[in-house]
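Figure 3 (text version): C-alpha cells given as input.
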C-alpha cells in the first residue's frame, strides 16, 4: 500500500497540553526512545531556551513520524495569544488539526479565535478534551459546553467511565450492546443528530433497524474528512491515556495530502529560521510537484528564481538531509537568500488563503542597554522580523529609533530573552503604546506646485474627504492623461499608501478618499520621480487643511463572573470607557458584553481574575477602530523628514530617490 501523508496542527489556548501530546505521539510512534516532559524542560518541540525556562511554547515546531502507514507531519503551536502570528502562518498548510480543550478550563478566549479560523478555512478537526484526570472534570458537561459555546457540530467518539474516580477509563462511545443506560440514551441522541447528515441512516433509524457502531463511526469519518462534523475524543496526555486512539483518529478522521507528483510545483513557506552556516531556512509545504537539491525554483511572490542548496526535514530534534521533497510533504529548504515567510514557490493556484487570528495593536521602541550594541540590535530585529513579519520592524536611521509592533507584554518579555540568548544583546523596550490611526475631520484640498529647483515639474491638487469607519483608503483620479501622463499618474497612485503611513498626528491615515482633481506635467522637465516626491507633500498639505481626528482600536468583549462582583465590574468598565449591554443572569452568574478601548483594558484579564478568585472569564477579539478624543489618545511627532518641511523634504527625497532607497 502506498504511504500517505498528513500535515496536522495541534492547536489550543495556552497550557492545554499541546506539547505534552506531541511528546507522547513521538514516543508512541518510536520516533523518540525517551518520553520528554514540559515540566522537566525536556520536550522536543519546546527547544528554545526561553521555552524550557518558562514552560510555554513560543514558536511553531514541526516534527515527523510514521503511524498506520502514514507519514504524520505534526506542528506543535504556541497557545499564548501573543504568539498567534505563528499559528496563523501554520494554518495555511494543514490537512487537519487537533484542537485541544482542557477538561477543567473548558472553552477559553483563544479557543474561540482558533475555532473561527479553522472553520473559515474548513480544516477537518478532531477535538481532544485533555486533563480529564483533574479533580472536578465533567466530560459530558464539557462536551455540551463545546457544542454550545463554539456552535459546533461535534459528536463524541469516546466515553469516560468511572469519572469521579482515580480509575477513570476511556471507552468507545459507539460500543454495541452496552448495559449502561446513560450511554444508551446518549447514543440515541447523537444518532438522531448524525441522521440529519445521512438519508440512509435516517430511514434505517426511523424503521428501528439495528445500527452498528462500526457503521456510525464510518459515517462520522466521512463527514469529518469534509469538515462537516467534528469528532470529540478524550485523554490524559500527561499519562499517555487516549494517545494511541488519538493517533489512530488522525489517520481515520483527517484526509491525506495530495501526493500526485505529475503536477507543476506549488509550495508555501510557512516558517523561516536562520542558521549561522546555511543562512535562511525556509519551511515549505508542497501542495503539488517535487523538488530536489540544487533545483532552480521560481518564487512567485518575489517574481525571482533562486537556486536551492539543500533539502532537510526535522523528524525529532535535529534536521536530516533528505535531498528531495515531494507533493504533500513538508521540508526545510536552504540556499534561497531572499525568501520570506509566506512566499509562494511555483504556481499560486490551489494554495489555501490565510485567516487572520489577531493583529498587533501595540507599538514599542527597542533600545540597546549598551549604546555600542545599537547597530547589532537593529540587525537582530531585522532578522527576527523576517521570521515574523507582523513585528513590522521600522528602523528610523536619522532618529536612531527602532520601532516594533507587538501583540502583548509576554511577547515583549520573550523577545528580550531571545535577543539575549540568541544575539547576546541586552535590550529593553519602552512601555507599549496602542497603535492609533487618524482620519480627516472634514473635506478639503491639498495643492502642490513642485517646480523648483529645476529640473522638476509636478503640479497637483488633491481633494481629501473623510470616509466611513473601517472603509480604508480610496484613491481616484479625475485628471486627464493630456494634463498628467498615465505613467506619472501611476506613480501618484503607487505613492499614496506610503504618503498615508504618517499623518499630521504621526499615525497611519485611513478611512479617507483622495481624488486627484487637477494636475499638470511638463514635456521637458517632468520625471516620474517628481510625482513620487510631490505626492506626500500634496496629501499632507490637504490633511493639514482638513485636520484629522484620532482613531483607537477597540475590543469586543464578553465577561462572565459571579453575581456578587457585578457592581465592581460594571464600575471598572465605565472607567475604562466601555459600552455594554444589560447583564444576563444564569444561576449565580452573569454575562455581559460590549466594546472597550484596547488602551484602557490591557491588564483587565489579570485584574478580573484576581477580583473573582480566578472564576471570572473575559473573552475578547478585535472589533475595529473608533473615534477617540484627542486628549484621551496620543499624538506623535512625525518620524523622519516631514513632507510639510518642503525644502528639507525635497533634498532628502531626491537623495533617496537617486540612491534607489525610496523609504519615506
Ligand atoms: N493533570 C494533567 N496535566 C496535564 C495533562 N497534560 C498536560 N498537563 C500539564 O499541563 C501543563 C501544560 O502542558 P503543555 O504540554 O506545556 O501545554 P501546551 O498546550 O503545550 O502549552 P503552550 O504551548 O504554552 O500553550 C504542563 O504542566 C503539563 O504537565 C493532563 O492530561 N493532565
Ligand atoms: Mg506547548
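Below: residues designed for each position.
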Amino acid at each position: 500500500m502506498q504511504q500517505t501523508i498528513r500535515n496536522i496542527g495541534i492547536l489550543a489556548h495556552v497550557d492545554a497540553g499541546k506539547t505534552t501530546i506531541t511528546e507522547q505521539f513521538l514516543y508512541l510512534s518510536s520516533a523518540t526512545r525517551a518520553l520528554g516532559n514540559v515540566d522537566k524542560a525536556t520536550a522536543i518541540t519546546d527547544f528554545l531556551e526561553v521555552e524550557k525556562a518558562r514552560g510555554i511554547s513560543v514558536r511553531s515546531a514541526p516534527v515527523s513520524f510514521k503511524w498506520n502507514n502514514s507519514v504524520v507531519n505534526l506542528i506543535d503551536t504556541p497557545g499564548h495569544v501573543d504568539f498567534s502570528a505563528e499559528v496563523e502562518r501554520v494554518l495555511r498548510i494543514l490537512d487537519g488539526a487537533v484542537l485541544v480543550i482542557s477538561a477543567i478550563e473548558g472553552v477559553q478566549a483563544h479557543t474561540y479565535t482558533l475555532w473561527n479560523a479553522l472553520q473559515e478555512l474548513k480544516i477537518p478537526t478532531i477535538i481532544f478534551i485533555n486533563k480529564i484526570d483533574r479533580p472536578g472534570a465533567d466530560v459530558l458537561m464539557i462536551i455540551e459546553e463545546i457544542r454550545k459555546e463554539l456552535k459546533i457540530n461535534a459528536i463524541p467518539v469516546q466515553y469516560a467511565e468511572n469519572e469521579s474516580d482515580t480509575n477513570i477509563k476511556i471507552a468507545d462511545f459507539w460500543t454495541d450492546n452496552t448495559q449502561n443506560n446513560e450511554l444508551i440514551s446518549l447514543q440515541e441522541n447523537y444518532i438522531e443528530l448524525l441522521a440529519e447528515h445521512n438519508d440512509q441512516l435516517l430511514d434505517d433509524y426511523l424503521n428501528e433497524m439495528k445500527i452498528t457502531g462500526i457503521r456510525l463511526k464510518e459515517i462520522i469519518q466521512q463527514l469529518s474528512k469534509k469538515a462537516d462534523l467534528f469528532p470529540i475524543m478524550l485523554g490524559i496526555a500527561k499519562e499517555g491515556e487516549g494517545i494511541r486512539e488519538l493517533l489512530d483518529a488522525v489517520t481515520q478522521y483527517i484526509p491525506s495530502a495530495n501526493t500526485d507528483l505529475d503536477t507543476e510545483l506549488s509550495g508555501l513557506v510557512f516558517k523561516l529560521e536562520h542558521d549561522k552556516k546555511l543562512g535562511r531556512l525556509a519551511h515549505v509545504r508542497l501542495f503539488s510537484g517535487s523538488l530536489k537539491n540544487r533545483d532552480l525554483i521560481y518564487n512567485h511572490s518575489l517574481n525571482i528564481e533562486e537556486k536551492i542548496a539543500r533539502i532537510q526535514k526535522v523528524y525529532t530534534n535535529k534536521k536530516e538531509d533528505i535531498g528531495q521533497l515531494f507533493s504533500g510533504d513538508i521540508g526545510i529548504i536552504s540556499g534561497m537568500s531572499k525568501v520570506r515567510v509566506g512566499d509562494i514557490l511555483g504556481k499560486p493556484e490551489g494554495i489555501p488563503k490565510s485567516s487572520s487570528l489577531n493583529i498587533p495593536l501595540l507599538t514599542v521602541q527597542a533600545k540597546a542597554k549598551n549604546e555600542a550594541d545599537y547597530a547589532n540590535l537593529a540587525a537582530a530585529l531585522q532578522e527576527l522580523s523576517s521570521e515574523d513579519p507582523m513585528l513590522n520592524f521600522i528602523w528610523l536611521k536619522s532618529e536612531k529609533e527602532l520601532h516594533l509592533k507587538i501583540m502583548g507584554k509576554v511577547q515583549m518579555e520573550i523577545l528580550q530573552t531571545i535577543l539575549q540568548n540568541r544575539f547576546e544583546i541586552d535590550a529593553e523596550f519602552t512601555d507599549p503604546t496602542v497603535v492609533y490611526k487618524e482620519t480627516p475631520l472634514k473635506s478639503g484640498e491639498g495643492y502642490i506646485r513642485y517646480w523648483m529647483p529645476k529640473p522638476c515639474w509636478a503640479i497637483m491638487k488633491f481633494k481629501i474627504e473623510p470616509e466611513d469607519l473601517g472603509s480604508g483608503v480610496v484613491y481616484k483620479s479625475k485628471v486627464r492623461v493630456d494634463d498628467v501622463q498615465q505613467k506619472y499618474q501611476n506613480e501618484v497612485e503607487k505613492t499614496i499608501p506610503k504618503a498615508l503611513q504618517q499623518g499630521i498626528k504621526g499615525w497611519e491615515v485611513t478611512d479617507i478618499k483622495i481624488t486627484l482633481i487637477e494636475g499638470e506635467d511638463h514635456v521637458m522637465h517632468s520625471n516620474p520621480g517628481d510625482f513620487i516626491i510631490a505626492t506626500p507633500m500634496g496629501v499632507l498639505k490637504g490633511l493639514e487643511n482638513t485636520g484629522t481626528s484620532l482613531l483607537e482600536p477597540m475590543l469586543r468583549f464578553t465577561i462572565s463572573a459571579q453575581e456578587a462582583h457585578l457592581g465592581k465590574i460594571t464600575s471598572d468598565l465605565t472607567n475604562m470607557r466601555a459600552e455594554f449591554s444589560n447583564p444576563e443572569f444564569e444561576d449565580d452568574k452573569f454575562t455581559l458584553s460590549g466594546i472597550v478601548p484596547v488602551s484602557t483594558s490591557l491588564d483587565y484579564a489579570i485584574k478580573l481574575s484576581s477580583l473573582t478568585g480566578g472564576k471570572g472569564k473575559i473573552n475578547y477579539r478585535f472589533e475595529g477602530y473608533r473615534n477617540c478624543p484627542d486628549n484621551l489618545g496620543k499624538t506623535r511627532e512625525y518620524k523622519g523628514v516631514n513632507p510639510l518641511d518642503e525644502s528639507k523634504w525635497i533634498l532628502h527625497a531626491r537623495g533617496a530617490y537617486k540612491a534607489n532607497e525610496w523609504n519615506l
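The two ends are 58 Å apart (CA to CA).
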